[in-house]
Amino acid sequence: MSVYCKENESLLKKSFLSILNQTIIPNEFVCVMDGPPGKNLLNVIHEFKLECNKLNINLKIVKNEKNLGLGMSLAKGIQFCSNALIARFDSDDINDSKRMEMTLKFLEQNPEVDVLGGQILEFVNDIDEVTGKRFVPSNNNEIITASRIRNPMNHMTVTFKKKSVLDAGNYIDMPAFEDYYLWMRMLNNGAILHNLPEVLVRAHTDANTYSRRTGLKYFQKELHFQKKIYKDGIINKATFLRNVCTRCTVRILPPKLLKFIYKIIR
């Protein structure tokens, strides 16, 4: 987990609790502090550390002296992970108590899978009040097809093989598209990706979620990402042009219209 230095303390506490309440708890947890945290955030992390000690979870705190962003923080954190399998958690999302149980059971039965994710429901304040959903394709062939148009994985739900991620070059600094770029490189590298049909995570959203995905800066990030995967040979020219005309164009739409489009295509 990467924790932003200005994270919401209440949401982080709930996210930590949903990890501790797993039917199968981790034997190790790596938490990357992305920038110097405030006192309240430190208190939440300290409480989490005490609970980890009770449950014999080896908690590793990795500190960034300054904010490096999600991609660089995760790339750094992976280097501190001891296990062959790594589960990704978001600092403001709530995990289903059986997330890891379902994940590990599937991976034991399907050892060829390199990345396993699942479905998400979205909430704003109350996790029982669903405000949206993001369902992604299941098998590897469907994921390959979908990946040319949209991100085929829900990042906060994935568990992956450390070696497979490192073989593809690890996370790379690609603001707003860190995970999408990783999946594209992994698929291009022959990795097998899969998604469970079950909802594994309740993902937190807020009034600014769609605002952050629009505007000139986000348009530039999207264009940079599309240029990179085209230059890498991951997508062809026709796909690149289509994505520029569709994905890039929507980035300059008003947030309310973008939200409406997202709900349709999901």
Tags for this model:
globular; 43% helix; 3-stranded parallel sheet; 6-stranded mixed sheet; alpha/beta; 3 domains; 266 residues; 10 helices
How many individual domains?
3
SSE sequence, one letter per element:
EHEHEHEEHEEHEHHEHHH
Radius of gyration: 18 Å
Overall SS class: alpha/beta
What's the total number of strands? 9
Separation, N- and C-terminal Cα atoms = 26 Å
The CATH C-level class name of the largest domain: Alpha Beta
- Shape designation: globular
- CATH hierarchy: architecture of the largest domain: Alpha-Beta Complex
Task: Write the CATH homologous superfamily of the largest domain.
Answer: Spore Coat Polysaccharide Biosynthesis Protein SpsA, Chain A
Q: Remind me, CATH topology of the largest domain?
A: Spore Coat Polysaccharide Biosynthesis Protein SpsA, Chain A
Q: What fraction of residues sit in β-strands?
A: 15-25%
Largest sheet composition? 6 strands, mixed
Instruction: Let me know the average pLDDT.
Output: 93
Number of distinct helices: 10
The parts where pLDDT drops under 50 for at least 5 residues are none
